[in-house]
Design a protein that fits this description.
10 strands; OB fold (Dihydrolipoamide Acetyltransferase, E2P); 165 residues; 5-stranded mixed beta barrel; single chain
Length: 165
Amino acid sequence: MVEEGWRRFEVGSVVAGIVSVIPRPGAIGLFVDLGGEPRGFVDVLSLPRQVEAWPAIGTKSTFEVLTRRPTQIRLWPLEPRLRSGPLENGVSEDEWPARKARYPIGAILTAEVTGAYAGDSTYFVRFEGGWSLLEGEAQVGSRTEYEVIRHLDTTRRTLLRPAGT
């Protein structure tokens, strides 16, 4: 069942998949078979600029889970040849070690909810020097304490959860 299957894909985890559908090359991205429902999706902006450099249907690769929803798992290709470049998240490769040192795993920080998406129960928070996407519901504009639970080196992202949970 799709509703339950999507929960097996933790944000930040590495998954293997096979490119299964390229609906409009160069226009929207591609779908990845992850061994059942839901399918994975790689956005066009994550893929090489030249469509000829896109992976062909049947290509096996590994991906980092960017976000998860009941109907789709958003993916980031881990093979550099399959992507347009580094994930543009505002943290350079040179700045990343300092970010991790400033916010070690277990650290508590205050962040503001800057966007909420009722359709899939996710929300964005911004904190000094970074941002994170969380699952659940939150009020835009609210400030809350969060705990750093993981650093994702490939995409230079800091994963958070509400403090005390």
